[in-house]
Amino acid sequence: LVRLRARLSRSQNALGKGLLTLLSREHLDEDTWEEIEDTLLTADVGVAATTELVDRLRERVRVLGTRTPAELRTLLREELLALVGPDLDRTVHTESPLDTPGIVMVVGVNGTGKTTTTGKLARVLVADGKIVLLGAADTFRAAAADQLETWGERVGALTVRGPEAGDPASVAFDAVKEGAETGADVVLIDTAGRLHTKTGLMDELGKVKRVVEKHAPLDEVLLVLDATTGQNGLVQARVFAEVVDITGIVLTKLDGTAKGGIVVAVQRELGVPVKLVGLGEGADDLAPFEPEAFVDALIG
Length: 300
Ligand code: GDP
Description:
The chain is an alpha/beta fold. The protein contains eleven helices and eight strands. It has helices at 2-23, 30-42, 47-64, 69-84, 114-127, 144-155, 168-182, 198-215, 231-243, 262-270, 291-299, and strands spanning 102-107, 132-137, 158-160, 186-191, 220-226, 248-252, 274-278, 286-288. It has an eight-stranded mixed β-sheet, sandwiched between helices. It is elongated, with a radius of gyration of 21 Å. The two termini are 16 Å apart. 44% of the residues are buried. Guanosine-5'-diphosphate binds next to α5.
């Protein structure tokens, strides 16, 4: 965790450092407040959240009068934390209320890191002593099932797959059935994410969901978003949220961007918490999203 934190802070703390430097100016004039806004917008915090944060900071700085570096740091930390939402439930639910495996569906646009995230999550669950089964319902991308199976072998999870270009819902059905029959604790279903038409996506994901829910309730629908795609990611998020009820967000590639503000923007957009973050391509590069650690990494 310490290693992950260090990696996160290397790419992220430009934002917090920049804000602190600006706040420490002797005269906090209009231009400075605008620069503070620009810094937040550049980090993809979004317009509404930026306005809210700056208004609150201005008011508190005004009330405070004196502004020692320590005071400003505390202020900024508190306000950023409030924005990130320190009290949201970020547990990834994998425990079925019934005597059936917990079921997690992983959705998102191709290339965002869906398959990788499914593999990494399997690793975390296996390390936790759970029997995990993977369902390769991304039958659209030719290599996706192979990639998932490789992850399965690597982390110690069986993979259920279907014929290439086969019906994703039927693979999901088989995976959940196999999971129940073999006494798996959790079934993770990787889905396809081509966004060429919304109706196509809607039909496909909707069908996967319906078929799975015939067996058992879905415990989580995790939406995978690539942090480096910024506002574009928000547009994608909206489309997916219309198709399925998202219960949590996984923000990937946070290691490769200083635009960590997207955490705030996407949570507001969907009203759903970021639960996990991807911090690299390796098997251990998935971490729970911790608001305090995140904000500390921002401020450095
Ligand atoms: P999918 O099409 O959504 O299933 O995407 P993949 O899982 O195949 O991932 C696409 C690419 O992103 C691969 O090269 C992954 O190794 C890479 N990737 C996934 N997650 C992360 C992450 O958190 N950080 C970095 N740097 N790369 C990632």
